[in-house]
# Entry
Amino acid sequence: MLLGACDFHFTEVNHNNVFENLYRPNLNFEKVYGAHAIYYSLTGAKYMFNYRINDFAFFDYNLNKVFEFFESSSFICCPNLVVTELSTSDNNHCYDLFSKKEKIFYSKCFTEFNFKDYHFIYLNLQDESYIDKFDNFKDYICALFKIKYPGKKEYLEQFKERIDFQFFTLEDVKNIHLIHL
# Structure
């Protein structure tokens, strides 16, 4: 069960396959890429582990293998229960905030995406060296947005709409930094 996925044919084709908040992608289209989160059965975990060993990058370019193998028991949740922010990636692709690529992602992968339905924390907007200079999460994250995106300051108000400032506290972020070390 993919709890969230990058399905670049969702608005074009796969939204028609949704039944009772689940769908299987049309296998004629190959752009179901990386998963935001997956819930595995034991059989599914073994299958994915074996593919991971034999074909390291398959997660990111062909999840259709999963839907072909688990023909009657693999699905994607709709709406996605988990969504990842894509401005930070270690897979040689990223979708910078407010870029054309990011806009294409949200328009192709979702029919009615609303940031308020999820709780985002942007990894590229974390910086240990600034964290102790602020008293609250909102001031910290907004200051880092201005520092790391100096050419996009006009997007600051839109960015603030993406963040639930009541969900994360500055202490939460400090603890995330401690875990990361």
